Amino acid sequence: MKNKLNHIAIIMDGNGRWAKNKNLIRSKGHLAGMEKVREITTLIAKKNIPYLTLYAFSTENWKRPKQEVSFLMSLLRKYLKNEKKTYIDNNIKFNTIGDLSPFDKKTINAINELKNTTKENTGLTQSLALNYGSRDEITRAVNKIKDNIKEIKEEDITNALDSKTLPDVDVIIRSGGEKRLSNFLLWQSYYSEIFFINTLWPDISSLEIENIIEDFEKINRRFGEI
Ligand code: IPE
Ligand code: IPE
Ligand code: MG
Prior knowledge:
- This protein has helices spanning 15-21, 26-46, 66-82, 84-89, 105-118, 134-145, 154-158, 206-218, and strands at residues 7-11, 51-55, 93-97, 125-129, 171-174, 193-196.
- By secondary structure, the protein is α/β, with parallel strands linked by helices.
- Helix 5 (105-118) links the parallel strand 3 and strand 4.
């Protein structure tokens, strides 16, 4: 029996190095990376996988030069505005995880608008992780519930996370060659199959993702059993 793939999460790393290799400025790498977001999201939607979560901006990414941060923010707004048709045509529901409170009004409006436009869609739920850090998410979750519950159970934490409407992550893919999770979905990935690939995100191909999905389907997932 093939494993059912409900939720695939991707750490889209390597935009900067992709640009550097081509003697381009880092922002060109982010632009190329954005094109890949559309391609891979459409692929996952067509494969009828119900959940895709993409790491777009971490709680640590604010430490980058101001110029890069503001470029990423304007790129995000552009993406949210321009991609509406992709979401509608492919029946994709847009969602976010992460703390949106530090974002400016323009960005929050663009996020809410795409959420609203796509809220009745019934195909893929695509979540962008924006100002997302797993430790921050868990800390906020515990603070939400601490005064109302005598004894906190695992499911109380699960249900207080930003990801409360998403199932546990089956597959995590990290592009760009680093073998670390960088504060991404630490709770939700407790039994994930993890694929680290060397390809830089803007070079990723649909075939590469399809091969990972095929490999995942064949894994003997034991969840602690024998
Ligand atoms: C990932 O690419 C995108 C974001 C973190 C926003 P990077 O910008 O981290 O690319 P590298 O790792 O420097 O190549
Ligand atoms: C992880 O990439 C975050 C995103 C892809 C948004 P980073 O480039 O920020 O991670 P580190 O710093 O190499 O661990
Ligand atoms: Mg990086």
